[in-house]
Amino acid sequence: MKKLPGKFGTIAALLLVAGVVLIALGFFADKQRAFFNYIIMYSFIVSIAVGSLGIVALEYMTDAQWSTPFRRISEFLSFGIPFLLLLAIPIVFGIHDLYHWSHKEAVEADPILQGKAPYLNEGFFIIRLFAMIVLWLIFYILIIRNSEKQDETKEYKLLTRNVKISIGFAPVLMISLTITAIDLIMSLEPHWFSTIFGVYYFAGSAVAALSAMVFLSVSLKENGYLASELTDKQFHSMSTLLFGMNVFWAYIAFSQFLLIWYADIPEETFWLQHRIHGSWGVVSLALLFIHFVIPFLILLPGRMKENRLTLKTMAIWLLFAHFLDLYWLVMPNLNKESAFFSWNEIGSLLFIAGFFMLVFKFKADRTNLTPIGDPKLEQAVGLHLHPDISID
Amino acid sequence: MLKKLKEKFVEIDGDLRLEERSNEIYGVTAVFETPDAVIEAAKKVADSGYEKWDVNTPFPIHGMDDAMKLKPTKLGYATFTFGTIGALSALAMIAYMSGFDYKNIIGGKPFFALPPSIPITFELTILLAALFTIIFTLVVFNKLPKMNHPLMDTDYMRRVSSEAFGIFISAEDKKFNPDEVIGMLKSLGSSSVNLVYKFATDEDKIKTPIFKPAFLGILAGTAVLTAVLTYIILNYAIYTVPFDWMTNQPKLNPQKMSTLFADGFGMRTPVEGTVARGFKPYESYGKPDSLIRIISNPMPFTKEVFELGKKKYDTYCSPCHGNYGKADSRLNGQFPNPPTLHSDKIRNWKDANIYHVIVNGQNIMPSYAKQINENERWAIVHYIRALQRSQNALDSDIPVDGNKK
Question: Which pTM value belongs to this model?
Answer without folding.
Answer: 0.73
